[in-house]
Fold:
Amino acid sequence: MMTDEDILKKLEDSTKNATRHQLETLQSILERQSGVRYLQPYLSGCCAPIDAATYKRTVPLSCYDDYADHINQLAGGDHGQNDQPLLAVDPLVCFFYSSGTSSMKPKLIPYFDSALSKAASQIAIQGSVAILRRLFPPKHDVNKILFFIYSDNKTTTKAGFKVMAASAFPLQGSSNENLSQLIRHSSPREVIVGSNFQHQMYCHLLCGLRNYEFIDGIFSPYAIGLIGAFSFFESKWEQLCDDLENGYPCLDITEVAMRDSVIEVLGGPQPDLSKRIRSICGESNWSGIFSKLWPNVRYIKCVTTGSMSQYCSKIKYYAGEVPVLGGDYFASECYVGINLDIAQPPQTTRFVMLPTAAYFEFLPFDMEKNEAVGEETVDFSGVEIGKMYEVVVTTYRGFYRYRLGDIVKVVDFYNSSPQVEFVMRAPKSSFEIISERDLMSAMESFQMMLRNVMAVEIVEFAGYTNLESSPKKLMIFVEIREGCTKLRDSVAILRRCCSSLEDAFGSIYKVQRDRGEISPLSVSIVKPGTFDRLLQVAIEKGAPASQYKPPKIVRNREIVEFMEGCSLVTVRLDSLDG
Structure:
């Protein structure tokens, strides 16, 4: 069993000769997987060992659609014929869901039982834990975490393989390592593996409040998970206090195993604790609420980069003086980077690329044109500080020169491994007229203006470009906090704000707008709770609650129709609908 120091030294050593480790990683993958059906059309005439240059010359860049048929075959039980596996030679264990936010339909990511991948993953996971323990040494008496995680929506494929969120996979089974993780959670396993997302969230809060003296940290995979949980808390705290006073959860919690496990955690009526929480929440001041409710909490941890950065200020509002730590760069397909400096501001988290986690390439990306520059990639040694790239991965588990869909900025090197900031999700096509980053930057300015002139707080937003209309049409859907203002009485002010919003979009939009290729901007204010209902619909369609990220750029007409049906008032810069 390695100590924290051993793990951190191993991580450190891997970054010192990162390029060599990358070539060894690619060699290990190809030695094992070069005979799979996906690679055979490209590598059948190549002599082993296959070097990086040959691999990149012969195997094309790929996207999920290139694997979809093979993945569907695997899900149906077809693992390949004539002893030729489809994607990987290792046994298939299960499938992970992607977040499925922009399309409403999550992708299936196959998880193969690869010893090499397990070893690389363990170093990343254990390294993340060791870094946290170095900054916050464990305490014997304050040793629980309030973790908003949901091992939900586990389904099975036609062939009987389980499908789940990648973040829930470590909690499956009954190994000693899994049990040791669960012991630290303030919620019992029955809550984590429950079948109703809102009931799970409620029980997480209830168990966290009961264990208030022992909570050391508060976790969520993504910032939106914390925002959702504590917005929910603001509306449910009185019911939670009633439950503590009674010693059992409200009748809404109907799942027997979950209900019984929570009753056991509560340990009977807790009138004094209920009174304490009522006195705190009765003030309706949510600033610094984390430390008010959990006096011994030392840190909050979640991913706050990319589209999650919009929630950072609200999390800091809830956190008060409690430090907010950024998460790591872990994708469903593979581990990508680790946050070695968790004390840095969370919204500017820098990730050190993990040289042994996968073989990485970087496709230059032009932010002005909102598209990749050609198909020539560079490796660790070829990236340049200050430039943007789309991440391309070759994994131990069946993806080869796969475009991950993430745009990163190289900001430095840690030893010889690139340090990157996550910028945004890549556009799906060159026809998109606004990037995720353009939209978020413009909406940040829009929020400041609305707050100043109308006392309005934006809860959530999303953009959609109708490429089929002539001229093209950009629609922005905005949800504001309930009770902020009467919108129909403020249409003129809202119109002025929307005009400023249009001026803040990127160069592609402005050029096409000036040419008349895009019609005037349309901004719809939707009903309070619209994005929560969208979350519920996404979960019903298979999206994992733990990994759900609200779509910023919508590409699915079903979502657009849903949003349009929830519209309260729509401002178009050339007209008004109410």
Remarks:
- The two ends are 65 Å apart (CA to CA).
- The first strand starts at residue 92 and ends at 97.
- The chain has three domains: 4-115+329-425, 137-297, 436-572.
- Residues 4-115+329-425 form one domain.
